[in-house]
Amino acid sequence: MNWKHGLLSTVFLIGVWQLVIIMTGIQRFILPPPWTVLETLWTSRALIAEHTLVTLTEIIIGMIIGTILGVATALNLAVSTTARAILRPILVFLQAMPVFALAPILVLWFGFGIAPKIIMAVMIIYFPITSAFFDGLMKTPTGYMDLAKTMGAKSINTLWHIRFKAALPSLGSGLRLAAVYAPIGAVIGEWVGGSKGLGYLMLLANGRVKTDLLFASLFVLAFVTVCLHLAVDILARRLEKDH
Amino acid sequence: MGYGIARRVTGGVGIKFSGSATIDGAPLFMPITLNITPNEWTCLLGPSGVGKTTVLREIAALETAVDFDGSITTSDNKPLNDRVAYMAQSDLLFPWLSVLDNICIGAKLRGQSADFERATKLLDRVGLSDHKSKKPKALSGGQRQRVALARTLMEDRPVILLDEPFSALDAKTRAEMQELSAELLKSKTVLLVTHDPAEAARLGHSVYVMQQDGLQTIKMPSTSPIRATDDADTLTTQGVLFRILRGQVI
Hints:
By secondary structure, chain A is mainly alpha-helical. Chain A has eleven helices and no strands. The radius of gyration of chain A is 22 Å and the shape is elongated.
């Protein structure tokens, strides 16, 4: 994405927003003007930063745990037909069940701290990571496998030196998806129960009709997600570099 | 001792392949008998889809889509396991490894420590010692196939199975690769699968032409491979092979 294009579309969006306010005379508590939101972003920066840090921590820890679990599951599925028979239906079941519906239960079980939010983020990214990496592991070029066989390779070494390495670009695709989904998981967790994080702040602002603060929090969340996406994109490119 | 006669180096492995193959009941090839002489180059020539790669893959104990009915025996009556090295049309280099690490991959896959000194010497023999730290994508098609040859030599197996390894190269590079391979693999038992009569005429101690109705062998020139491309005997042999492939009676 070209940064100039990004800037241009931001300016365009703000222009449309301001135009809607001028033309409709809509009230500030329904749709605050861009300038007010910017002002609130500055005056409430300490408050917003504190809650952003909480959400960011949940997202990053969720991403790390979800990735480790996803990679481990995919490796197990790739090497064992028994694991495929047992785990695959469970995976599909987990994916079919809306994570949103689980949020209240997680809060009930794990309290109002960051644990249920991290679990939400983990659950939402676990399937895309597992699925993308497993696909990659099963698509090792047959020529590589033939070569390994004639060389008398041990299957654990083939898994590590060939199948794992050949599947890294697929893991990169999974991570890109995860970077978009993980913030959703964390914020939903904050909505359902909690006293910290951007999701909580948005709910609080909404309840007190502080629409400007709600919008400011929303923009920070979008900004965090975009930054996360860019960071993961750099990592994914590294994984794809030698393929 | 089995059936083969080692002409230059004794103690090589000869292979006898005999049998037929079917795919879902439909015959791929009729019963054939292919004798691969120890320490010589045997070429298996034929059009695409006739089953020559299947023959090679059966010998290499690789997966095939066919039901093979027959036997593969060796001159010393020992199994071929761990005595075969394989080189395909695609170089099969791992893009994430350096040239040197690609040559040493066999040892890594077996869980052994790699002999980097020997690998460096082999890289020198294929003329690529300046490229050992490079990744394969920094090399040309011909250079990549030379790395694959060095990797094959690194395995140090008595039997080498070549599945059209030169067919994707341009004419000049192909001729150079043929010469280099003939020199470096001269003490090995080699089976070369190819669809190019010129290549078979140049490289084969013996040549078998494989067609749907069976296998046919021809009298080869008295000169030893590798033969010059413009040698009269090579050109005559090439012509004979070409006519057999086209179904013309000779």
